[in-house]
Amino acid sequence: MAPLPLPAGIEPEDREPSRAAPAPRVVPRTAARARAAPTPAEAAAELWAGMQLPGIAPAGALQRLARSALQYTPRVSLEPPDGLLLEVQGSLHLFAGVAGLRRVLAQECRRLGVTPVLAFAPTPLAALALARAGKTHAVLDAAQLVGQLATLPLATLRWPEEVLGRLARSGVRTIGAALRLPRGGFARRFGTAQLATLDALTGRTRDLRTALRARVRFRRRRELLCELESHQAILATLAPLMAELGAFLMQRQCGLLELECRLEHRHAPPTCCVLRLAAPLADARRLATLLGERLSALSLAEPVRGCELRTAALVPQRTDSLELWQPGEHGGALSSEASGLIERLRARLGEEAIHGLMLLEGHRPEKAWGKTAPPAGSGSGPAPHRSTSRCSPPVSRRPLWLLPAPRPLTVRDGLPRRRGPLRLGGEPERIETGWWDGEEIARDYYTATDSHGVLLWVFRERQAPHGWYLHGVFG
Amino acid sequence: MARYAELHCISNFTFLRGASHPHELVERADALGYTALALTDECSVAGAVRAHMAARNRRLKLIVGAEFRLSCGLKFAALAIDRGGYGRLCRLITRARRAAHKGQYSLTRADLETLPPQGCYLLWLPGPRIEAAEARWLTERFAGRLRIAVELLRDGEDGARLAELSALGAELGVALIASGDVHMHVRARRRLQDALTAVRLNLPVAQVGSRLHPNGERYLREPARLARLYPPRLLEAAAELADDCHFSLDELRYEYPREIVPPGETPAGYLRRLTEEGAARRWPDGIPASERTAIEHELALIGELGYEPYFLTVYDIVAFARSQGILCQGRGSAANSRVCYCLGVTSVDPQRGAALLFERFISRERNEPPDIDIDFEHERREEVLQYVYDKYGRERAALAATVIMYRPRSALRDLGKVFGLTPAQSGRLAAVMQWWDGSATIPERMREAGFDTDGSLLERLLPLAAELTAFPGFPRHLSQHVGGFVIAQGLLEELVPIENAAMPERTVVQWDKDDLNDLGLLKVDLLALGMLTALKRAFALVNAFRGTRHGLGELPAEDPRVYDMICRADTVGVFQIESRAQMAMLPRLKPRNYYDLVIEVAIVRPGPIQGEMVHPYLRRRAGAEPIDYPGEEVRAVLHRTLGVPLFQEQVMQIAIVAAGFTPGEADALRRAMGAWKRTGGLDPFRERLLKGMHDRGYSDEFAQRIYQQMMGFGDFGFPESHSLSFALLVYDSAWLKCHEPAAFACALLNSQPMGFYAPAQLVRDARAHGVEVRPVDACVSVWDSTLERRADGEPALRLGLNLVKSLSLAGALRLIEARTRRSFDGVPDLATRAGLDRKDLEALAAAGAFAHLSGNRHLAFWEVAGSERPLPLAPAAPAAAAEGRPLLTAPTEGEEIVADYAAIGLTLGRHPLALLRARLRAAALLPASELHAAGNGATVRTAGIVLMRQRPGTASGVTFLTLEDESGQVNVIVWERVGRAQRRALIEARLLEVHGELQHQDGVTHLIARRLIDRTALLGQLVTRSRDFH
User: Fold this and answer.
1) Cβ of A183 under 8 Å from any chain B Cβ?
2) For labelling, which of B166, B201, B496, B505 has a CA lying 20 to 30 Å from the CA of B750?
3) Which residues from chain A sit within 8 angstroms of residue B882, using beta carbons?
4) What is the CATH number of domain B5-251?
5) Interface confidence: ipTM more than 0.85
6) What are the domain boundaries of chain B?
7) Is 0.80 topped by the overall pTM?
């Protein structure tokens, strides 16, 4: 019985690339970078709503607002960081005109917890300029537009400071004053780009806007016709989905960093198994192997009735299968091989069990190393920091095993004991430092041998009561 | 106990490494029983004199040396064995310092081979990894004088290190000595040392990591500790090496340059000849007998002490300046001698001045050179400096250094970085301290500045700040002295190392003026004085306009109209007496002659104020108090000042006549007065003085007052000998202001920056005195402001292009050149022919300089924006001509005023507050002019632009403000309590509203502030800036 794959789901997303995952270079056809402007014939009837968020809007508010604005019109255009444009002419009749639309938009804003200024005008720039000036006008008649714009400060057009400064010095501070200037002279002095803005503002030329574009994720669900318990069987069921994922990624030259596999049960809530990767991965076979590792560690509450694969945001993937040598074999990129190992260890032991180590600058032993994220598999990650200073003590004098915290030792006759008296070896190393962060130390470190012949690293506090502590064990 | 000498020790003159003062190191080493201490600052002997002075009366021997790190990494210290070795050391330091930028040095093995430090012991200072090759290289070259320094610092490897170095020493036949790489005198300075390291590396201390020292062992360790660490022979070897070094800085002998005497003449004979020639000029009708006696007395004393070359050196420099037409004038006690009067160093007629105490500066008992300061026109002093360099060569002449010490502000800024604060936070932290001191209030200020003050940061930071700012000041770097030149007969670099200053073509020695004084080296102060530049210009303007031949000291003397003006405190721009405090004093002191001016210059100073001498003097002058003298001997000293001591010299003379000091002791006292802040050295004199006066029957109260005044003079003493010279300039500048206000204002404008007032106030004042001031005009103005002849023959002041902000000199000169060929027919023509770039054109348009070419500023900017610099060989673009006239609004009056201030710093239109007057009136705020009419004690409200803020150290927390509105100025006094409560408004406001109580006294009006309100917002875009003094 062949399971029926569901169509790929495409969620609308903001177009702002997230930092962690740069936007894919390939976008789905359905959300192609379309010009929002219609043909000139339709244009005469355009009406734009400009929304201007207040300066202190919460982060992400604009994106949320933009997504929800898609309910009212398909033509939504972002003016980052704080402006939004909606072409609403076509939607007016659905909301009983401007007043009605204003009402529903205001409602929606309240729901999202933002309070933008909302203005309507026949050109997008004019709507935006009005909103930026704090005017809640609705200019419906193109003939009145220039008059309504005249008193707005030029600053609402957000021209470069330098241009605004030069205009101000000629006494030109409002849109009206700028529109009164001779066109040729204006363009020559303040730039053709600025003249073009003025033209777009007044509707003299078309203002072409980029519409909101969606972002893609892969999401496939498959219902099973029977309940499965065996990991092997589940894995086999997932195989076509994995193959599809592989094709999906390859078409888009994208890799993923996170793959979620949801296993659905009859009663119990779905079992979620999230695979996190050290480096973007697109290879379906490797993904399947990793997922298998991960699944084999899961205990299932109930048999599985359906399964679903979901990716988080995709990232562009560099193909590196062209390397002449296999990783690690003959000088091939060690880091690629390491990342494979790291992924497998993570898959087995869990996220937190794996971390990198680095040496830190400084004399305090407990601060001389730190945890770090494992090196990224791409090979471009930062190399672990190494202490390069001439002054740092030779590593040979430091034990490989350092206790998480020094452990007090008993003392008899002024000498430390651990399972019997310790034999102190050699001269002390004095360390006095760290006064600046409240964790100052002042200690004399010794190597010591216990009765079993184990070499220890111990210290004596320089401050009274001069306690002895065990701090490490030499390998 | 084993003997020990520390041979490797740096002080805080190894800037940002050493954490202890030289004197602390010396005192501690002595207390620990070391036999000797070598101060081996890194490529420097800058701290040596201080250490030497501290070691003078101690058992401890001070060795002068220096530490070096070659560019290859080899590190060693050189210790001077004898005078020759010291000279070699100085030359090596000079070589290394001159080869690098200011504050750095660069030395290679090759340098060491060409300039071997003979006469020095060399200590090889091996690094953490012992490079035997370094030792071999040194051994091959310096075998007998080389030692291996063994520094055991408890890093856990001491034993291995000692063994390795012992083996190496045995192999090479080089002896080992113990030393400690000392960075601080006690281990308690470890935190400070870490913090300094962080400052040096420009990192927060938490990020410095292993570049900090791992422990605090680099201090002067107790001999018992050392004995546990080192084999006894190494300790003894250090002490023996120290025994061999016998050089002392006391051996330095200074020789005056010889070429100042023409061939065939002796210095004495030449000085006498010049003096006689000068005397004949000064007294054409024959030298009065009293002057003849005085001259003979002076020449005899000069001869006895061998100071002829000093006077001749000064004469030579002054003669050069005269030959170049550079105005100059000497001051200082030696300068006011008859000899200097005859040599033309000063114009102070000794008879007109006072019988000065010649012994004061030339002391028979102490072999110290006299001190003469010469002021030059500030814009031409550099020519004089270069003359000195050229004449004596850079090997023989250099500027003295100034040691820049940590101030509270800089200490907090640096420490802020150490604790990882952002530059903005550090800045705020430092700004918190700007106007206020007194650590009690710091936490409060910190909270105000938005710092979490619960403590841990402060707890760690403040003690360090206290160490950095504690007496006698923690050195941060070396800078150049304003003008103190050291000139030597031999190679100066064998006397003291020379290094590069920040300014190109400047070199400084590593010692500051106090160090030079302590060792008795000759120094001539060649200083820059803005007023001399202004006077020179004013004379030139007047002489050109009127055909007169006025010159310095040649104006009609004792003109009553000049004194009338001075008594009205109408002295904006006049030398020395233009400050607010001086202006407040003038109507009370009412100067009527030259000597009154001498007193006026000296009386508004911390000395007389803290000694509470001002009011007694004023009362006696006004006849409100009888003039009496505490004793007959004192009458001779104090009769010039009505029985009240006002000058530094008088205090000294009293010490001689009333307390039994010898002239030499009095001179020591004078030096202590100047230096007591540095070394706290006035106390030893206190008892001596009080007892001496008590024994001679003077009241304890009088004695106390004299002592208080000495303390004050330490802060900022003003000696009569300087005041006498300054008063001449006061009179000349006042005369010009009184009779030639246009020329005077013009000269001041062209000599900016100088003086107390900004161009806006100078121009306002000139207009108030009836001077017509004409605006900057691209069709007329030249670079400087000039005088134009009006129809009535009187001068009008035309503002110059130099007032136009961001106009380049080259552009202005091209403009003037193009204009002389043919006048401009418009802005495009001007832009094309003068080849001005957009920046210059905009600067001129902003200044309103195109008024005649294009109309108002808006049109000017429109034209400028359309002017493109033509391509070479291309015809002027026709596009501009075809353009229509734009519809531009004219600027409003307010806009014009704002633009005026922004572009030239002043306006010829109305005062900005005139535009706000209606609103200010509505808020019941009075203009300055009406304020003066209100009665004494009246409660009033006013508002004005803050021109100045002053917080004199003598006024115990009082801030003086000067406000200005369209009708005049208001002087506001803000008591500490009021200022503290309303600190933000006091410090930040540019337009300030003040409510308070009026106080009229002796024709001076003050407003005692009760409430301060920041009204800056009313000014909008107007840019004003107050001059803050504190």
Assistant:
1) no
2) B505
3) 184
4) 3.20.20.140
5) no
6) 5-251, 267-399+483-489+507-529, 407-472, 606-717, 804-904, 912-1029
7) no
